[in-house]
Amino acid sequence: MPAIQTSLMGRETEVGWRTRRPASLEEELRDFQAFGTATTVLETVVTGADEERIVVPTFVNEFWTSKQRAANSLHEISYRACFKPQLPRFFIERLTHPGDHVYDPFMGRGTTLLEAALLGRIPLGCDVNPLSAMLLQPRLSPPTRPQLAARLSELNLTFPTALPAELLVFYHPETLAQICGLRDYLL
Description:
The chain has 7 helices and 6 strands, in the order E-E-H-E-E-H-H-E-H-E-H-H-H. The chain is an alpha+beta fold. The chain folds into 3 domains: 1-63, no CATH class; 65-142, Vaccinia Virus protein VP39 (Rossmann fold); 145-186, no CATH class. The strands form 3 sheets. It has a two-stranded antiparallel ribbon. Strand 3 and strand 4 (53-60) form a beta hairpin. Helix 3 (86-95) crosses helix 4.
């Protein structure tokens, strides 16, 4: 059963069961002029495994508009080496359908999997850093208010031992005690 997918320029394209992408993404990129600027096509030459010369078209234009750069507020978590959510969204929309699985073996802060979930796909992923799951899980399944209240009541934000003196120049003693207590709770 073919599906309908929206292209970069808002055109609907019938997608075959096996192709899972617009019939000619290359044509779509080449013809893109949504903001009055024609796409420039460059040739990137790479050497293949058998020393064969492969010419790859490189499309230059303003494909990512400010509207496209606007993202869901669920992505607003600082994390090193992350990318904008529009990048995985671009590929998820073109290469999968709602209900498909999207797997990310390097979750990071969960950008790809969160976009997959927002687009109605089933997110699957792993990461060597346990922080990745801690950052993503509450955004995929937000806790209820009663669950939050119960969890907060469990927190003991007092710090029983002496506070690190070198940090007292940066924090009020009560604030530092809460930070140290939270650190102990999380670790």
